[in-house]
Design a protein that fits this description.
With about 675 residues, the chain is an all-alpha fold. The chain contains twelve helices and two strands, in the order ααααααααααααββ. Keywords: Coiled coil, Cytoplasm, Cytoskeleton. InterPro entries: Centriole_BasalBody_StrucProt.
Length: about 675
């Protein structure tokens, strides 16, 4: 108990508790000290966990802030693209509405022809008119009015397809170059047949072939269909367009619902849009190749027909020359022989009639050729003007191609940026899941910390009670210390008395030693006397009986002296032990007095330090409770964001002209949770 007591006393002295206390209070103080040390260790662990929680919360806030900034950038980019799409859609809607208003307000045939030329569809209509062989202008206007809306819708859809097919720009340029090269041959081949049917449609047909080769060439492949199949074809096309428009409306509604349901799936939506673009781009190339083959077949057909007409003309000319020459020779031969009465054969009559028909046809063709030459001169002038217009339009088309290519590159960059943003969103989602798990762990740690905090508060209260008891015990120990001081003084007096007694005992011992020496001398003298007596006894047996009484008395005296000597030796040893114990008691009391003073000082210092640490721990606990409440609020806010923030509202009106995107990650955009 002594080393433990001294170690505890030294620890308390270091802490400032220098008051004296008894040995009975040492176990209580040791238990209090161990509890206090464990409490301090738990407080240090709690502070470390709290700092770790605050640091993780700070890192989580930084990640959330970066996530919000990136989402804000993505939102701005999407809004910008949405504005561009809305502007393009409004332009197309304005063009379509203007065309419809113009169609409703004006029914002049010439204006309709001009509009159809501007829509690059007039070549198809004139080809159909020549196939129909319509001479009534009212029927043509009625047909144009009936089919104009479907043509406009088809034109808009084809324009959209061409805009979406920007990725096939090099192939498209080669395709248009081939079409432009073939236009001249087709115009030269088709001009005689068109002039034979109706000469005034040659100019519009040439313009249509020049300005709308892809749209006009697809329908030229039909070789002179009758009116009933063509009407059925147009009705089937109208129904197909209605079905396509209905399917597009249904697709638009479905996409709206899907976008509302999957607001956060931007990547999937972009992939679907790319799929639609790819599908539209793939359907454009086969049509173009089919139109090219149809145009080549039509060209070959007109070439064959033109060669046949040339052969017929050559045959008619040769046959006309042959009968005339043969007739002159026969006349010359008949005159001398007088064969005037010879009749022509039936074959010659047929040839002559056929020759007359061919002659009339040749005359008509000659007049037609003259008209065609005049119209050719007019067409050359128109061709030059149209060539200039074509050059201007080609420059504009190049500018539009550059703008389209730039827009395509921008779309690709935007798609890649959206892909990166989607990957970032996925990574941020995984980070949010990790943060949620970490927050749950922190909640568990916070709950355990709260439990440990409550337990520590109880322990602190218990320690306060124990400290109160220790203070009371300290007072009792101070009183005991005063008693011990008084006892020490008494002991000092007793020690002085013991010293005096020891001196007296030493004097007595010295006197006893002297007496013992004297007794020994006397004993030796008695021995010598006894020897003398024995000798005397031997000499005189008779004196023995008389000297027995004297001998017995001497023996009794010797026994008394030896007993007295043993008692003196016992008293001396007892006095020596008492002196040693007195010296040890005095030294122990002096040491106890010094250690008690030091322990009292250390106990006072330790009490002051404990009180300061307890106040600091109370403040740390209050700060921990406040930070825990903040963490709980932040956790609740993050849970709300996880439930509703990522499920932002994203609505797409790609077909009606409006596209709005909204992603909410917090009630206030850009705010950071409290630290």
């Amino acid at each position: 108990m002594g080393p433990k007591y001294e170690a505890l006393r030294s620890d308390l002295t270091e802490m400032g508790y220098t008051e004296a206390f008894s040995l009975e209070s040492a176990p209580l103080v040791a238990r209090l000290w161990s509890d206090l040390c464990s409490y301090q260790e738990q407080c240090v662990d709690a502070n470390t966990a709290l700092r770790r929680t605050v640091q993780e919360s700070q890192e989580k806030d930084d990640l959330a802030e970066r996530y919000r900034q990136e989402n804000a950038k993505a939102l701005a980019e999407v809004n910008r693209l949405h504005a561009c799409v809305v502007q393009l859609k409004e332009k197309h809607n304005d063009k379509l509405n203007g065309s419809r208003e113009w169609l409703d307000g004006k029914q002049d045939p010439q204006q309709l022809h001009e509009m159809l030329k501007r829509l690059t569809l007039f070549g198809w209509l004139t080809q159909e008119f020549t196939s129909y062989n319509m001479s009534d202008e009212t029927s043509k206007n009625h047909y144009i009015s009936q089919e104009f809306l479907w043509i406009c819708c088809s034109n808009e859809l084809k324009h959209e397809m061409l805009k979406l097919n920007v990725s096939h720009e090099p192939c498209g340029r080669d395709f248009h170059t081939l079409h432009y090269k073939m236009d001249a041959a087709v115009v030269e081949i088709c001009r005689p047949s068109l002039v034979l049917v109706e000469p005034r449609y040659v100019g519009p047909f040439v313009d249509a072939l020049r300005f709308n080769t892809p749209r006009s060439s697809g329908l030229v492949a039909k070789k002179r269909p009758t009116s009933v199949p063509r009407q059925a074809d147009q009705q089937s096309k109208g129904l197909t367009l209605e079905e396509q428009i209905q399917a597009l409306e249904e697709e638009k509604q479905r996409l709206k619902e899907r976008v509302k349901q999957l607001a956060s799936s931007e990547r999937q939506l972009l992939l679907e849009i790319q799929g639609l673009l790819a599908n539209k781009g793939q359907t454009a190339d086969p049509d173009s190749s089919e139109e090219l083959r149809a145009l080549e077949r039509e060209r070959d057909h007109y070439k064959d027909e033109l060669m046949r007409l040339h052969q017929v003309l050559k045959m008619g000319n040769t046959r006309r020359k042959l009968p005339s020459s043969s007739g002159s020779e026969s006349g010359k031969q008949a005159d001398p022989k007088n064969l005037e009465t010879s009749n022509p054969s039936a074959e010659d009559e047929q040839l002559l009639s056929r020759l007359g028909l061919l002659q009339r046809e040749v005359d008509k063709l000659t007049a037609t050729v003259e008209n065609l030459s005049k119209q050719r001169d007019q067409l050359l002038v128109e061709r030059d003007s149209h060539a200039r217009q074509l050059a201007i339009l080609a420059e504009k088309l190049k500018e539009k191609d550059k703008d389209t290519q730039t827009a395509h590159f921008t779309c690709r960059a935007t798609e890649s940026h959206v892909d990166k943003l989607q990957d970032d969103l996925n990574s941020k989602d995984s980070d949010i899941v990790k943060l949620t798990c970490r927050v749950r762990e922190l909640e568990a740690e916070a709950a355990s910390a709260a439990e440990s905090h409550s337990r520590l508060l109880q322990e602190n209260q218990r320690l306060h009670e124990n400290v109160t008891l220790v203070a009371k015990e300290h007072k009792n120990m101070a009183a005991d210390f005063e008693n011990a001081v008084q006892q020490r003084r008494d002991l000092e007096l007793q020690i002085q008395e013991y010293v005096i007694k020891v001196a007296k005992i030493e004097e007595l011992l010295r006197t006893r030693d002297q007496e013992r020496e004297d007794l020994l001398d006397q004993y030796r003298s008695l021995i010598s006397a006894n020897a003398d007596l024995r000798t005397q006894a031997e000499q005189s047996q008779r004196e023995h009986d008389s000297s027995d009484a004297t001998l017995n008395s001497l023996r009794q005296q010797l026994a008394r002296i030896s007993g007295h000597l043993r008692r003196l030796e016992d008293d001396l040893s007892l006095a020596r032990t008492e002196a040693a114990t007195a010296r040890s008691d005095a030294t122990s009391l002096e040491r106890l007095l010094a250690t008690s003073r030091e322990q009292r000082c250390q106990t006072d210092i330790a009490l002051e330090r404990l009180s300061a640490e307890m106040e600091k721990m109370k403040q740390d606990m209050q700060a921990g409770v406040a930070s825990r409440e903040k963490c709980k609020e932040e956790l609740n806010r993050l849970h709300q964001q996880a439930r509703s923030g990522l499920n932002g509202k994203l609505t797409l009106h790609g077909f009606t002209g409006s596209f709005q995107t909204r992603l909410n990650f917090s009630p206030e955009n850009g705010t950071r949770p409290p630290q």
